Amino acid sequence: MSRRPKRAPLTRSEVMARVRSKGSRPEMLVRRTAHGMGYRFRLHRADLPGSPDLVFASRLKIIFVHGCFWHGHSCALGARMPKTRQEFWGPKLGRNAERDAQAQAKLAEQGWDVLVIWECELKNGDDLRERIGHFLGPVSRRDHGPPI
To answer: So where are the chain's domains?
Structure first.
C-alpha cells in the first residue's frame, strides 16, 4: 500500500485566500431555497450598495447572506476572534460590519427592503423557507417571467 506524502498545513493566508465572497455554501443554500420556492432573482448587482447577494427587483427587496465570522454576528461563530494578529482582525471585522450598515442604510434610502440571513440561521430549512416567504410575500406569475 502506498502512502500519500503528508501536506504541509496551510498558512493563515492560504486559508483566508480560499474563502469565497460569492457562491459560498451558505449563499448557495439560500439561493436554492428561494428558487425552489418559486422566486426569481438577480445575483450580486454591482450597481447597488453592498453588491447584494440576491436582488428581487420587482419587489424592491434584497437578501444578504452573511458569514457570522466575517460580518461580526453576535452568535458563537461571530464572536470568535482569531488568537493571532488580533490587532489586525479586530479593526478589519469592525470595518466589515460598518460597511454593511452603510450599504443597508443607502439601500433603505433608495426604497429597498433588506433581509440579512446569517450563516448560523441556516440549520433549519423550514425556518429558512418561512423567513424568506414572510419577507418576499406570495409567489406570483411575475416571478416566473412571461408565459411561453
So the answer is: 20-138
Rounded to two decimals, what is the model's pTM?
0.79
Closest CA to 57 of 48, 67, 66, 68: 48
Kindly report the CATH class assigned to 20-138.
alpha beta
For the segment 94-111, the average pLDDT, to the nearest whole number, is 95
pLDDT at position 141: 65
Q: Decide: helix, strand or coil at residue 117.
A: strand
Dihedral angle computed from the Cα positions of residues 73, 79, 83 and 84, in that order, rounded to the nearest 10 degrees: 20
* Contacts for 1 with CB less than 8 Å, ≥ 6 apart: none
- CA-nearest of 107, 120, 27 to 72 is 120
CA distances from 93 to 35, 78, 86, 90, 101 (A): 31, 10, 10, 6, 13
